[in-house]
Amino acid sequence: MDTQLTWESDLEKARVKAERERKFMLVDFSRER
Amino acid sequence: MSYPSPNVQSLIAEWFVPVRLLLNRAEDRIHFRHYRVIWTPTIAVLDRRGVDHYQSPGFLPPDQLLSTLRIGLARALTAWSRYDDAADQLRTVADDPTNGLAPEALFWLGVSWYLKSRSRTALMQAWQRLRDDYPTSVWALRVPPGQDAPEP
Question: pLDDT of B87-107, one tens digit each?
Fold first, then answer.
């Protein structure tokens, strides 16, 4: 259902992206079903 | 967790880089320990240094999830001294009297206004509204006793 969002799976890569885009990170701590 | 609501997706896209970490994935477990996450799902708002500012455990319906994200975002914005942006997010939640998260939003709205202005009057504008409109809320109880409404 997450049609518009691309979820990162690597926290460090996400951090670099957040730095570049001047955004925060939303981390979904989850588990595979 | 699924994020089917367009409003939720829009807020995430505007303000966040979304990350999904899985307990089942061995390399992710260090992050569960680091951020002290003991339940799935939990969502956390982190800044770009990796500092966590807000966590919310469990599932939420879309409307409550949206409000929760706004409060979490506002907490991070406040920590980064972006008080006006934080207040914008908090007001959206606080101004809806049917929103169960309005008391929490009002509490942090007062904090945000105070940190911006160092004005007790600004703080109490939000906190008096919190006490008047939601007197039984645990967030109203967090306002120290003896705090009076500001002078008109």
Answer: 999 999 999 999 999 999 999
